[in-house]
Amino acid sequence: MTADLRIRDLSVRLGGRPVLSGVSLELRSGSFVAVVGPNGAGKTSLLRAIAGLVPHAGLIALGAENLDRLSARARARRIAYLPQGHEMHWPLPARDVVALGRFPHGAADPDRLGEADREAVAEAMRVTDTEAFADRAVTELSGGERARVALARVFAAGAPVILADEPTAALDPRHQIDVMSALRARARCGTLVIAVTHDLGLAARHADAVAVLEAGRLAAVGPPAEALAPDCLRRVFGIEAFIGTHQGAPVLVPWS
């Protein structure tokens, strides 16, 4: 299933305070979209609204489907959500945690997976480099290892849209690059990937498009070179940055 995501005049209020106001986006399947902005700009609220986890006004549609009219399970088959934090309190084997990604498809027991479910879990663990600790309890893993297991769970869902909230937090530089590359590869297979990140350099290098939020409103959207242009960086983030290229890829380093 592939489809474009349309967001029209999306607004969210939390505790009586507006956190998103009038956000409209057209996001194409098969693209990797980075969402950036200062702290408190509404980035997480945007992802949670798309996932159906916070009350909101406005339209969120995947193809011809209004997502707000779907059941929670049907929505979970279309939207796979990776929240911040990767908190895991039960000593389940990493493989079983990844298998939870198949729950929206009816796989309620990790010990009784069908062939398609087993293949999805194995492929997700392969591309996230988590196979080596498949049998270890997630409570014994490092923060970075748990983050990759959580990402594998999202990949295993096989949803046409992936939402990832700061997926590279707590990862070392190698695995930051690996995770962003894996998300980009997923997009190249037709999935719409939307990832919140505070790392403007990773966004500039890996994303097809960047959406910049400021105080709950869309400040800029477009290819990285346009959305992260010097004037936008000054206005929204209050920074100057080095912008260049290396091996044909864009480089952005916040400087002052």
UniProtKB/TrEMBL annotation:
Top-rank lineage group of the source organism: Bacteria
Keyword Translocase annotated: yes
Gene3D superfamilies: P-loop containing nucleotide triphosphate hydrolases
Keyword terms, alphabetized: ATP-binding, Nucleotide-binding, Translocase, Transport
SMART domains documented for this protein: AAA
Occurrences of domain ABC transporter (ranges): 5-240
Gene Ontology MF annotations: ATP binding; ATP hydrolysis activity
InterPro entries: AAA+_ATPase (IPR003593), ABC_transporter-like_ATP-bd (IPR003439), ABC_transporter-like_CS (IPR017871), P-loop_NTPase (IPR027417)
Family that this chain belongs to: Belongs to the ABC transporter superfamily.
Annotated function: Part of the ABC transporter complex HmuTUV involved in hemin import. Responsible for energy coupling to the transport system.
Protein name per UniProt: ABC transporter ATP-binding protein
Organism of this sequence: Enterovirga aerilata
